[in-house]
């Protein structure tokens, strides 16, 4: 048996977790992008006309893979919180962190505009999903508050 306060607090805990993760991921992403740009600029200044070193290319590839993994995890968390906010049981695979292989182990070419564009679209979709989740949570909270007022 759960109290009314538990019912109201549970989804908001997930919203706070999601907001914190989103902020943290955004800050880390910005920091890594700035470091990557700084490294690229140093390479250009040191060796004009030469392609970037294999070490830098490897690091950029690892960076992209980590960001892709973070994106996938944040999408899963967003989905779980949305399911809970709508009163549904969460997808257990997502809850346990079991992912289908959307991002195969092969590294993507970060120099191709279509690859970058596709990743940008995924991030933009995630931002839209987070906004939808906020709306759902606000609606649910308003509904719960309305029901609380009626019962009191």
TrEMBL record:
Cellular component terms (Gene Ontology): centrosome
Superkingdom per UniProt: Eukaryota
The protein's name: Centrosomal protein of 85 kDa-like
Organism of provenance: Pteropus vampyrus (Large flying fox)
Highest classification ranks of the organism: Eukaryota, Metazoa, Chordata, Craniata, Vertebrata
Gene name linked to the record: LOC105310808
